[in-house]
Amino acid sequence: MKILNNKYLKPFKNIYLLVLIVFIVWMLFFDAHSLLFHYELNSDIEELEYQKEHYKNEMANDNKAIKELSTEEGIERAARENYYMKKPNEDIFIIEYEDSIAKQKQDE
Predict the structure, then answer these.
(1) Cα distance between residue 85 and residue 95, in whole Å
(2) How many helices (H) and strands (E) does the chain have?
(3) What is the domain range of residue 5?
(4) How many folded domains does the chain comprise?
(5) Residues 10-45: tens digit of each pLDDT
(6) Which residues contact 77 (CB under 8 A, 6 or more apart)?
(7) 42 and 26 share a domain?
């Protein structure tokens, strides 16, 4: 009987307190809307927002490239820089520095 009269166990004799504690534990850990579930959802939301910003930046870069390629000068510049195309009776000299050659060999 001494265990039941312990001062630390006395509050747990109240049925309302026991129900409240069980309810809180249930809501924090076991319910479909638990604290752990919300934490996972919040981390997913943060990841999706990061991806959203990344794709917005990519779209802005693509729109900029489309605007550049919509003009005749932009198409000509892209063809010369990226594909080394040239006009008739024109010579192209590609200048590569030693540090850029070393980087290309490392990438391969």
Answers:
(1) 15
(2) 4, 0
(3) 1-31
(4) 2
(5) 767 778 888 898 888 888 888 777 888 889 999 999
(6) 68
(7) no
